[in-house]
Amino acid sequence: MRRFLKLSIGVIAVGLSMSATAQQTAADYFENGISKSKAGDFAGALQAFSMAITMNPENAPSYYNRGLAKANLKDHRGAILDYDKAIDLNPKDSYAFLSRGLSKSKQDDHRSAIVDYGRAIELNPNDAQAYYNRGSSRTRLDQHRGALQDFSRTIELEPNNINAYYARGITKQKLEDWSSSITDFTKVAELNPKRAQAYAGRGESRIHLNDFAGAVQDLNKAIEFESNDADSHYFRGFAKSKLEDYKGAYTDFDRAIALAPNNFRAYYGRGMCRSKLNDQKGAIQDFNMAVEMNNGNTEGKVYYTGKITRPILDNLRNVVQERNKINDLSAERSEAYFSRAVSRNKQGDSKAAMLDLNHAIELNPTYAEAYFTRGIIRSQQGDQKGAIMDCNSAIKLNPRYGEAFYVRGIIKHSLGDDNAGCLDLSKAGELGYTPAYKVISEYCN
């Protein structure tokens, strides 16, 4: 099927239970975190909840709400770690299971997510969202009959849940129950007459029932509300072809290709139209594209195997500033070597900079900033493994070195270790290096 289901993150504030006297400071941080969450300042909320956790590390709601803040920053790996802790402290919190399941779903760990949703349902059998989320994860695993039951239960609990009707309609399509799916899409259109997906879904089902004229009417409506939906153009082109309107179908297939150049079915459809319109040369070109795209291409071996390619890595890393601040000059003068290295690197003399950094580290083996800066330069030179080793050293010497976690994270991600890279980025954000969340949002989901 052509469409996908969306899950949503909510801000569910769970009350803080602690002594108003002995833990007043932690309570203040917690309430500040709740206020910032409600205002949409999730980075600020995260820092507030972190302080509450520092003051009172045994309070489950602080971990839970910090997890929500991370999830809203799209840091789902970091959120899961917080939900784990919240559940350890309070195993009967259905919201923690529901939220952990959602973050697992966002990481495509749908089997584990289903277990969490099931536990949330056991603890709260009337939670419509838990059924909906479980149905969505079951859909991703092609467990369509189970998903159908979950969406139906959601509708029983919330009779006007438009997303559940739409999801159930899509699920019925996957079970080839075309007639019944039309009923659900019709309900979606009744609840929201301007929702393009309702008409698109119903139009697709009508095609399978050979109601091509009805399909064209529905797809006209879908395109009226969402003119750049490539699939709607493709299906309308298909329906028009069945009605032998080859000129109209050609226009739709052509538009579908412009919107989605890798749609080999649209090339096939346009080729059929060209053949019917006596453009055999153009038809052959389109059929060639359909065949080649269907077979795909095999890429050669690459070293930067993650979504963060070498040019992206360079851009993300080069915005990091070295911690080059004036310090009291020690007897061995390692600080002077370090600062000279920073200046030499800025002048483009990375070779001389490396010599100075090596000397600074020899003179002061606990110089975290020198290791970190050497790691930056090694990464610039393409030595990503050496850069990771230097970041490891910097973090070992200073476990709160947010920039080092950030750089190590983007390098790991660029080398294909997405999970470890995103966990490092999560830690960087947790430590207050907020640029990590922009990278998480773009590359960790």
- What is the number of E strands? 0
Order of helices and strands: HHHHHHHHHHHHHHHHHHHHHHHH
Q: Poorly predicted ranges (pLDDT <50, ≥5 residues)?
A: 1-9, 16-23, 294-302
Distance between the termini: 22 Å
Number of domains: 2
* Approximate shape: flat
Q: What is the mean pLDDT?
A: 89
Largest sheet: none
- Corresponding CATH architecture of the largest domain: Alpha Horseshoe
Question: CATH superfamily of the largest domain, called what?
Answer: Tetratricopeptide repeat domain
The first-level CATH class of the largest domain is given as: Mainly Alpha
Provide the structure class: mainly alpha
Quaternary state reads single chain
What is the C-alpha radius of gyration, as a whole number of Å? Answer: 28 Å
Number of helices: 24
Question: The CATH topology of the largest domain, please?
Answer: Serine Threonine Protein Phosphatase 5, Tetratricopeptide repeat
The proportion of residues forming helix, as a percent range, comes to over 70%
Strand-residue fraction? Answer: under 5%
